């Protein structure tokens, strides 16, 4: 600004340090990306741990399912149910003691029952995908949809994908509650 109250359009911008603002430390990103990381960083951290535990449980589920169907000759839906229950036990331990270890602990029986209830819903999602593929689409194109490849794609790609989204939301929301959530609702009798 000049002394006459007019804005000088040709003046160079003043550096942030001259105005008293502190510049961002070297190596940090300011702006929308940094804001998103600050806001959702904890969620990304939880999701990466959840994905790791889920990956281990997936390998257990996948190996048991394929061994039961090809090695033991068990019907695919029965094999999927058994492999999922065993993999869910592995996932419960990993999620309770690693993914959400920082969250408030409630009654272990409550957590275990809710975990398996929501896991049963996730199992239902996976079984529905497998049943639609094998028995629904397989009735129309048996040479395509009644094969081990089709069973694995329906069960592990589609079913596991949809089931995982549901499980992450439900475990985070209902099973492994955030620290202080339960105490806050108990202290406020007006709710």
UniProtKB/TrEMBL annotation:
TM spans (from-to): 50-69, 81-100, 112-133, 153-169
Keyword terms of this UniProt record: Membrane, Transmembrane, Transmembrane helix
Keyword Transmembrane helix recorded: yes
Signal sequence, renumbered to the chain: none
Matching Pfam families: GtrA_DPMS_TM
Compartments in which it is found: Membrane
Keyword Lyase: no
The GtrA/DPMS transmembrane domain, residue ranges: 49-176
Topological type in the membrane: Multi-pass membrane protein
Region feature (Disordered): 1-29
Domain of life: Bacteria
PANTHER family associated with the record: PROPHAGE BACTOPRENOL-LINKED GLUCOSE TRANSLOCASE HOMOLOG (PTHR38459)
Family: Belongs to the GtrA family.
Protein name from the UniProt record: GtrA family protein
Natural source organism: Micromonospora echinofusca
């Amino acid at each position: 600004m000049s002394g006459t109250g007019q804005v000088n359009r040709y003046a160079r911008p003043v550096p942030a340090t001259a105005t008293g603002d502190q510049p961002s430390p070297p190596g940090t990103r300011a702006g929308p990306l940094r804001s998103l990381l600050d806001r959702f960083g904890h969620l990304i951290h939880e999701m990466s741990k959840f994905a790791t535990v889920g990956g281990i449980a997936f390998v257990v589920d996948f190996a048991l399912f394929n061994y039961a169907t090809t090695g033991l000759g068990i019907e695919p839906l029965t094999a999927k149910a058994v492999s999922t229950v065993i993999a869910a036990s592995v996932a419960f331990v990993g999620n309770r003691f690693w993914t959400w270890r920082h969250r408030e602990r409630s009654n272990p029986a409550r957590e275990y029952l809710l975990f398996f209830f929501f896991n049963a819903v996730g199992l239902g999602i996976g079984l529905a995908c497998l049943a639609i593929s094998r028995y629904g689409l397989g009735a129309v194109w048996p040479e395509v949809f009644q094969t081990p490849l089709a069973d694995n794609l329906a069960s592990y790609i589609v079913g596991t994908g949809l089931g995982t989204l549901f499980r992450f939301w439900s475990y985070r929301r209902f099973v492994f509650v955030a620290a202080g959530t339960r105490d806050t609702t108990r202290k406020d009798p007006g709710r």
